[in-house]
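User: Quick sanity check before I run a bigger batch. Here is a single chain. Can you write out its predicted 3D structure?
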Amino acid sequence: MKIAHLEFPDRPVFLAPMEDVTDVGFRLLCKQFGADMVYTEFISSDALIRDVKKTRRKIFFGEEERPIGIQIYGSDPDALVEAAKICEEADPDLIDINFGCPVRKIAGKGAGSGMMRTPELMLEITEKVVQAVKKPVTVKTRLGWDDNSKIIVSLAEQLQDCGIAALTLHGRTRAQMYKGEADWSLIAEVKNNPRMHIPIIGNGDVTSPEIAKHRFDETGVDAVMIGRGSIGQPWIFQEVKHYLKTGEHAPRESFRWYLDVLKKQVQESVDRLDEVRGILHMRRHLAATPLFKGIPDFKATRIAMLKATTLAELFDIMNSVEHAFFFQEEL
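Assistant: Done. Predicted structure follows.
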């Protein structure tokens, strides 16, 4: 599969761009576990052109992360064009436009999936950004604004006509947010539209190797993108790639192995930010990880882990979980 000049193996698996999740540390972990493509957190075009330091830092990445895309969002065509030019100077492999984020502070202002209510403006922005930069431009969006306006089949053709190099589709409307199940039937319809010739990447509820394979098989998408299913388990890419290749599950690693991955992620977050902010940043991953599911009477330990304020305290709690786990295994 190819996106412009970028070549990928058969059935590639991508890490979705996620705010406060896909920082450099997490991207590198997912890359090490087999993610074929990673993306930055999504970046406000308005903040970027105002040179807001926190936003500007988001466009930087390391060579070992390639191929990588920088994702931008906004509702003003001129601001998005200027932001795309700034991103191009950082030399990513591609620039992605976010027309899919459903959160109120973004969609409510007409950006992200709010663009599903103004498709003409979405197409104007896309065409202008494509023309403004030499890097490949891709788009990530949803099925429509709500169940009564699922416009993606015709819109996909129009986006392709704007010159984008690939299209990622999340199988929900904006009104759904992240509720209910992702509907991949319209993703399949876009992929199997004979007029479409750019790669179609499917996204939504890919949380296991079996689901990833099923989505490839049932829709024929060129790639699958994993978002929330990777939070707290960056090793999911390794598991999915092994299953796609062999049809069998990868051998289960030891509890300590998985715990060490999370501890490594915590340490990187602390080293990059500082102890307080680094631990706060990791709470989402620790709360979401499936590693601790099924451990009896774990609620109090989970609360303590998520309230920890120092690295020593947090690691002590995580180590105590490991010791309890091994004790139960021996009984």
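The first helix runs from residue 24 to 32.

User: Great, the batch can go ahead then.
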